[in-house]
Amino acid sequence: MGAYHTIDLELNRAFTLGKQEWDSVAQDRLDLACDPSQRADLAAIVMQEGLAHICLVTSSMTLVRARIENTIPRKKRGSCTQHDKAMNKFYEQVVQGLVRHINFNVVKAVLVASPGFVKEQFCHYMFQMATTSEDKETRALLEHRPKFVMVHSSSGHKQALREALSDPAVASRLADTKAAGEVKALDAFYNMLQNEPARAFYGINHTERANEAQAIETLLISDSLFRSRDLQTRRRYVKLVDSVRENCGDVKIFSSLHISGERRTMMTQRAIFPVPVAELSQLSGIAAILRFPMPDLEEEEAQETSSDDDNT
Q1: pLDDT tens column, 187-197
Q2: Burial of 95 (0-12, 13-18, 19+ CB in 10 A)
């Protein structure tokens, strides 16, 4: 765990990957990696003239499913024919990529982000194409029209997705996606820490104490803890996750693989996303919201803080 190995694999050739012990966290990550489209309930098209990225956004990572890049001639004075033809061909390729890579039975929302009016022109072309197409999958786009949300971005590069996810206009549309759940959970933790501190704790020792009392309602944990080089440390965190789930608690695993996992943004009218793995890491990588107050833990935490201050 945490180490890297290189091996050559041939395309379409089956292989078996094995190790002595697969814990529940590793199994979940493998299942997601094998078929992320079955869990990604948010899709995004980040585009500009001649460039588009079709992405799937899960609660733990952002995956680029297709990159479309075409050369678009500049508009000439008095004639835009070549430019318009190139843009229509580009839009058609994006629609084909969308139909090929997005499972609309799973996806709840599709962000279409671009600078200028590219997003509006693309959506207009896409639904016109769906109206006249004889292909069933393309025509089905009309049924999913309410899922499309247009939002501004500065470019068509993948990094611009962070801007699109932070637009307040998309907050209500994305509120029920799994990828927004981590932000909601961390915001709930901070609110609880401020208003009912006896129900919000962080650090492995306090979290384990709360779990022993079956008090954890929501566990927030950074995936970096599962990459510790010490086997016993990894097992300790996996055991905690399994125990919380057995006690009907909700587990939120925060991942640095997410496109917006570099910083934290509050789930308010200002923004919806980014997944706040960096902020959680500042809290030792693990935190918990409790079902009921545990004032004894709060007093213990206060005593430890006072002892640390005395030592310094």
Answers
A1: 889 899 899 99
A2: buried
